[in-house]
Amino acid sequence: MANMIVAAVNANPSIVLGLATGGTPTATYANIVEDFRSGKVHFKNVTSFNLDEYIGLSGTHPQSFRHFMQSELFDHIDIDPNNTFVPEGGASDPDAHAVQYEAQIAAAGGIDLQLLGIGHNGHIAFNEPGSSPSTRTRVVELTPSTIEKNARFFASVDEVPKTAITMGIGTILEAKQILLLATGKDKAEAVRRSLKDAASEDVPASWLEQHPDVTFVLDEAAASELSA
Ligand SMILES: O=P(O)(O)OC[C@H]1O[C@](O)(CO)[C@@H](O)[C@@H]1O
C-alpha cells in the first residue's frame, strides 16, 4: 500500500490525497515515513484531506484523528501543515464546518487518490450502515458496535465520542482512484459483503462497486471469505 501511494506521489508531486486513520494504516504510514527519510519521496506540494474526526475532540486530544495524523505521518515528512486538512472536531458549528470542508476539497480540485480502511460492519470513513451513495460531508451518529470497537483506543467505552464529522459516500466516490486496505479475520465478512453483495446501504463499502477504479489490498485473513 505504501509503495502504491509513494509511486502516485512521485508521478504527481501536487497530488491531492485522501487519508484514513484507525489501526489499519499505521504500518502504511510508517513505511511512507521510511521512504521519505531515505529520499524516495517528497510531499512539499502534496495536499491531504482526512476522512473524518470525532466531534468534541480538539486536534490536540490524543485520540483525535488530527493527533493521529500528526504523530503517525505529518510530523515526520515535509508536507506543508497548511495543506493538511482534517475535519475539526472542536468546530463551534459542526454542520457549517462540514459544508466548508466539502468546499475546501472542491477548491483543491477534488481528491486524486483516496486511502480507505473498512469497519467490521462495512463502514467506510464514518458512514455507518444506512448511508446512501448521495451522502456528503456531514455530522453522523456512530453505531453502538463502532463505539465499542473503537473503545480499544480510549480509557473506557464511555470516553468514545458518539458523533463525528465524516466525508460522505458521495464525496468518497468522487475520488479519481480508491485504495481500500483491510487486514485480519475481523474484516473478512465486511470485505466479502462489500465485493459480493449487491450494493446497498446495509454495507456502505459495497457502494464502491459503482466506482471505476478501486483496489482492495488485503492480507490472507481479510480475504479468507472470498474464495467460497
Ligand atoms: O482500521 P480500524 O481501526 O479497524 O478502523 C476501521 C475504519 O473505521 C474508522 O476508524 C472510521 O473512520 C476508519 O478510520 C477505519 O478505516
UniProtKB/TrEMBL annotation:
UniProt keyword Hydrolase present: yes
Domain of life the protein comes from: Bacteria
GO biological process, one term: glucosamine catabolic process
Record flagged with keyword Hydrolase: yes
Entry EC no(s): 3.5.99.6
Active site: 52, 121, 123, 128
PROSITE patterns reported for this sequence: GLC_GALNAC_ISOMERASE (PS01161)
Cross-referenced CDD domains: GlcN6P_deaminase
Keyword vocabulary terms for this entry: Carbohydrate metabolism, Hydrolase
GO (cellular component) term, any one: cytoplasm
PANTHER family for the chain: GLUCOSAMINE-6-PHOSPHATE ISOMERASE
Name of the protein in question: Glucosamine-6-phosphate deaminase
Organism from which the protein derives: Rhodopirellula maiorica SM1
Gene name in the database record: nagB
